[in-house]
Amino acid sequence: MDDRLFRNAMGSFATGVTVIATETNAGAHGMTANAFMSQSLEPKLVIISLKEDAHMLTKIKESGQFSVNVLSENQQDLSRIFAGQVQSEKEIMFDYLDGKPVIPGAIAQVACNVKSEYVEGDHIIFIGQVTDIHLEEEEPLIFSKGKYRTLEKAVIAK
């Protein structure tokens, strides 16, 4: 099977856009990712998947913790910065939730401790035990078919 065909098919699945963040002795670090999902309600677990050569991989292994930050439709610039697509002159400031760095203004901030990790293909899958959550009332940033997208505002019929 052709790699491009596979990538195009997987890219057809619309996802939210997240920034995975962690902190080591060298400071806070973040990376844009869409390989995120909830895994369990009891206990509260989430899954992230990082490519085996991602710089973030060693940082999460060192810290043993991470946060998942679901970006709002107004945070496309942060997605591009943390994806390494653009350089930012300004320093990115983090807030903290249960001692983990989080992106201010993200519509969901999910703080996690690493519970387990698995090697599958060319990725490492981390299972995170959720330790805290913070929510904001904003619309999500969406990614599908290689483009950023937004949701139409819901209209309630009267």
Automatic annotation (TrEMBL):
Record Gene3D superfamilies: Electron Transport, Fmn-binding Protein, Chain A
The record's annotation in InterPro entries points to: Flavin_Rdtase-like_dom (IPR002563), NADH-dep_flavin_reductase (IPR050268), Split_barrel_FMN-bd (IPR012349)
Keyword Oxidoreductase present in the record's keywords: the answer is yes
Entry superkingdom: Bacteria
Q: Which GO terms describe its molecular function?
A: oxidoreductase activity
The entry's keywords: Oxidoreductase
Q: Which parts of the sequence belong to the Flavin reductase like domain? A: 10-150
Query: Under which EC number(s) is this enzyme classified?
Result: 1.-.-.-
Q: Has the keyword ATP-binding been applied to this entry? A: no
Protein name as it appears in the record? Flavin reductase family protein
Q: What is the species listed in this Swiss-Prot or TrEMBL entry? A: Oceanobacillus longus
